[in-house]
Structure formats: structure tokens, C-alpha cells
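Reference record
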Amino acid sequence: MADPVTSLKTTTTSFDHEPSNSGDYGNEIGRLKSEIASLRDMIANRGGEAYDAVAKRAGNAVDYVSEEASTVADTIREHPAATTTVFTLIGALGFAIGYAVATAAADSKQAWYQRYLNDRF
């Protein structure tokens, strides 16, 4: 998880002060530009840290999945008859569920006018 943000205060001045009346707007604009640049750098650093953490976790997940896949493949190679039986049962179960759903749905596929007329007469 990302580290929680503890403080968003910066060392430079912010927008919460009144601009000076001396006409030194160029200096104030320069300070604001530098503050924006520092905020961009801070966001870029946080984004880089988050990317590194996600990349590390993704690498761990890939390693885990490849290990599990090789384990399953080894089991299938060692017990081909049991594997065939399991896949056949799963297919038959899927077919039975699909057939039951399709048969139940066929009853409700009457035309709307047939349902309307059956209720009226």
C-alpha cells in the first residue's frame, strides 16, 4: 500500500496570502511557478514509487502463477485418466445446467400478445 500523506504543507508561500500592492507581480508569479514545479516533482516522485511497488507485486504474482501452472501440468501428466474424468464431469455438469436454463427460458419466450390474450380470455 502507498504511504499515507502526513503533511501537504510546503516551505514556500502559498495562495493563502494577499498579493503585495507594490506592483511586484513578476516576483510573485515566479514564486508561484517555482511552487508549482516543486509540486510536480513531488507528484512525479510519488508516482515513481507507486509504479515500482506495483511492478514488484506483479513480478511476484507472475512467479506464483507460473509455479502453480507447472504444478498443475505435472499433476495432469502423472494422472491423465483422472484428469479426463474430471473434465468430462465438468462438461456434463455444464451441459445439464445450460439445458435446464434453456428449457426454463423457453416457457417465458411467448409473444407478448399471447400472454395478453391468455390473461383476457
Observations:
- The chain has two domains: 1-78, 80-121.
- The first helix runs from residue 25 to 78.
- The chain has three helices and no strands.
